[in-house]
Amino acid sequence: MENNYSSLEEKFQAKIDAEIKIEPKDWMPDKYRKTLIRQISQHAHSEIVGMLPEGNWVSRAPSLRRKVALLAKVQDEAGHGLYLYSAAETLGIDRDTMYEQLHSGKAKYSSIFNYPTTSWADIGAIGWLVDGAAIMNQVPLCRCSYGPYARAMVRVCKEESFHQRQGFEILLNLSKGTPEQQRMLQDAVNRWWWPSMMMFGPPDADSPNTALSMKWRIKRFTNDELRQKFVDVCYEQAKTLNVTLPDPDIKWNEDRGHYDYGEIDWTEFWQVVKGNGPCNKQRLDTRRKAWEDGAWVREAALAYAEKKQTRKIQQSKVA
Ligand code: 3HC
After folding, report:
1. Cβ(250)–Cβ(262) below 8 Å
2. For each of the chain's 319 residues, which pLDDT tens digit applies?
C-alpha cells in the first residue's frame, strides 16, 4: 500500500514538473486538495467581502461616470467570487459549507477588507494599491497547476486591470486638484499602503504554506517575492501621483536591483486576521445579514426547481 501511494505521488509530482494541469478527476494528494480548497475558498470570500468597503461609496460617488465605474467594479468582484466558489466546488466542497465557514468566522478572507473607507480617495487607493496587489498575486495564479483555478484567474485578471486603472485615474485627478484634494489623496495612501503590503501574506520564513505551494506550483512566486515586485512598481507610480509612500525606509538598493523597504507591523496583521481589525465585526455582520435576507430567494428557487422536477417525472410517466 505504502509503495503504491508513493508511486502515485511521484507520478503526480512528475505531472506538476512537466507543467501538465491537474484536473478535478485526476488523482491528487489529499494535502494538495485541502490546501487548494483552503486557498480558493478564502480567495472567493475575499472577493465577496471585498465588495463591502467600496459598496459604501456607490451612492456617494462624485459623478455619474465614477458611479458607473465603481458599480461595474463591485459587480465584477461578485463575479470573481462566484467563479472561485465554483472552482473550489470542483475539489469536493459544497457552497453552503464554504458560506458557513465564512459566516461562522472559521474561514479567513483578506485582512485588507477590514479597514474603513473614510473618503472618496480611499476608492482610488483601493483600486491602485489593493487591486494592484491583487493583480501582482493573481497573474501568476493564471499558471497555477490546478486547471479550474488557473482558468478562473485568466478572466479575473482581465477585469482586475480595469479595476486598478480606474483607481489610479481617480488618484491622478485628485493629485491635480485643490490642496484639500491633494491632502485627501495623501491621507488615503498613508492609511492603505501598509495593509496592502500585508495582502501578500506573512514573510516567507513565517509562511507555513508557501514551501508546499511552490513545490506543487500553486504559487509561482513566494510572498516576499511578490511583495518586492509590488514595492518596485508602486514607488515609481507614486511619483506620477506626486504622493509620498508612508515608508521613510524605502530606498533604491543598487546591489539588489530593488527598493529596500521598512518593517511591516505583523502584530497588526495577525490582530486583523484574528478578527480584531477596525471593521471585522461589521463585515461579517453584513455578510450574515445578506445571507439571512436572501433565504427567501433560495427557498423560492429550490421550491421552483422541485416543482419543475416533479412535473417532468409526471410527464415522463404519462408519455
Ligand atoms: N489576509 C488574511 N489571511 C492571510 C493573509 C491576508 N492578507 N495572508 C495570509 N493569510 C493567512 C493564510 O490564509 C494562512 O492561514 P491558513 O493556513 O489558515 O489559510 C496564514 O495566513 C499563513 O499564510 P501563508 O502565506 O502560509 O498562506 P498562503 O500560502 O495561502 O498565502 C496568500 C497567502 C498569498 C493570500 C495566498 O493564499 C493567495 O495567493 N491567495 C489567493 C489570492 C487571494 O486570496 N487574494 C486575496 C485578495 S483578493 C482581492 O484582493 C480581490 C480584488 O479584486 C480586490
Report:
1. yes
2. 556 767 999 999 999 999 999 999 999 999 999 999 999 999 999 999 999 999 989 999 999 999 999 999 999 999 999 999 999 999 999 999 999 999 999 999 999 999 999 999 999 999 999 999 999 999 999 999 999 999 999 999 999 999 999 999 999 999 999 999 999 999 999 999 999 999 999 999 999 999 999 999 999 999 999 999 999 999 999 999 999 999 999 999 999 999 999 999 999 999 999 999 999 999 999 999 999 999 999 999 999 999 999 999 999 988 7
- Residue 199 alpha carbon to ligand 1 centre in Å: 7
Residue 223 CB–ligand 1 contact under 6 Å = yes
The CA 309 to ligand 1 mean position distance, Å, reads 41
CA–CA dist 19, 27 (Å, integer): 16
Cross-strand pairs, 258? 253
Ligand 1 atom 39 nearest Cα: 137
Amino acid in the structure at residue 113: F
Residue 248 in contact with ligand 1 by CB distance below 6 A: no
How open is the CA angle 221-222-226, to the nearest 5 degrees?
Answer: 70
Q: Using CA positions, which residue lies closest to atom 36 of ligand 1?
A: 39
Torsion angle, CA of 51/57/61/64, rounded to 10 degrees?
A: 40
User: How far is residue 61's CA from residue 71's CA, in Å, rounded to a whole number?
Assistant: 10
- Taking the whole predicted model, whether its pTM rises above 0.85 is answered as yes
Q: From CA 68, how far away is CA 70, in angstroms rounded?
A: 6
Residue pair 286/102 in contact by the 8 Å Cβ criterion: no
φ, ψ for residue 258, nearest 5 deg: -140, 170
